[in-house]
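Late entry, flavin-adenine dinucleotide complex.
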Amino acid sequence: MIVRDIMADFELYQPTQLKDAFALLDQYGKDAWKMGGGYDSLSWFKERHKQPKAVIDLGGIAEMKGISETADGVTIGALTTLTEIENDPIIKGKYRVLAEAAAKVASPQIRNAGTVGGNVSQDARCLYYRYGLPCYRAGGNTCFADTPEGVNREHALFESDRCVAVSPSDTAVALVALDAKYVLRSSKGERIVSAEDFFVGPKVDIMHLTSTRPEEILVAINIPKKWAGSAFYFEKVADRNTWDFALVNVASAIVVKNGVIEDCRIVCNGVSAVPRRLTAVESIVKGKPMSEEIAKLAGQSSTRGARPLNYNGFKIPLMANLVTRAIRDAKV
Ligand SMILES: Cc1cc2nc3c(=O)[nH]c(=O)nc-3n(C[C@H](O)[C@H](O)[C@H](O)COP(=O)(O)OP(=O)(O)OC[C@H]3O[C@@H](n4cnc5c(N)ncnc54)[C@H](O)[C@@H]3O)c2cc1C
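Prediction complete; structure with ligand written out below:
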């Protein structure tokens, strides 16, 4: 019998220095669990599907908090809450697409404690996986969603390989659109990973959605100033307006000069295991006028190659419409 709603025991550590957190990660290895605001973590613990020996609550590490402008753009500590991002004057003024995405996550209560590091690092929401069934993502050899009777209206249209779960993060699309860089640090050093490379699909690693190694902590996210003040668009479509994950969301950053699209980045989530950057669409629209016609063409092209499952075919026109709007309605 699975006992739910009562967490298994673990050692709780609350370091206030990164070096102490790294020492704990080195000590416990794969038995350690990093925790930001805890909104994804606690549901795993309560359901008992993840039972780490040690939970490292990062919440006391001051250097991982806050937003500051730098010579190259802006740096956001991974422990910065989604509410802080939503209300920050620099983000709202220059990188609005991220503030809008953060404002659409879950509910005000979750945004008050949920961190941007936790939001981009959160795990898949496939109901079979979350329920604890032995699917590929959980280390088994079946996908319960990709079967004739599988409940798969929330699952992937593209790039699935055995697992059809999608990346659920709302801020991830905005950060890929802004070409953000993720700062991953461990006791051995630091590496900087682009927002696109931070996320990995099942072909690369079927059990994880990100390339963060067990010994690493995402300490900060840097946004380059190249896209500051661009035309932006964010939209999320979910079954409910609050406390719900995106069926599909979209973010765009567009540089328009004299009515012509000079440069752009357009990204969708909820359609594959990683935030899907629409590079083919970007090539179509670059150098073209910012017009209804071009936006529609872009929308139609965005779904080329989609492979719907039994119940998620509705995502194809939804994605096409969102991409059309992300170009046509992008505003400075
Ligand atoms: C009811 C509900 C509704 C939700 N709706 C949405 C939604 O609409 N949109 C959306 O995007 N999300 C949604 N979420 C998901 C998610 O819980 C929140 O988005 C929140 O941002 C997660 O942040 P956290 O700090 O609480 O994460 P945590 O639970 O602390 O961490 C999540 C994961 O990230 C890892 N992690 C955390 N911080 C770091 C770090 N600094 N370095 C390395 N790894 C780290 C943890 O190990 C864990 O695996 C929802 C969650 C709930 C419970």
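Residues 33-41, 43, 58, 78, 82, 105-106, 110, 114-115, 117-119, 121-123, 168-170, 212, 217-218, 243-245 surround flavin-adenine dinucleotide (CB under 6 Å). Will revisit in the morning.
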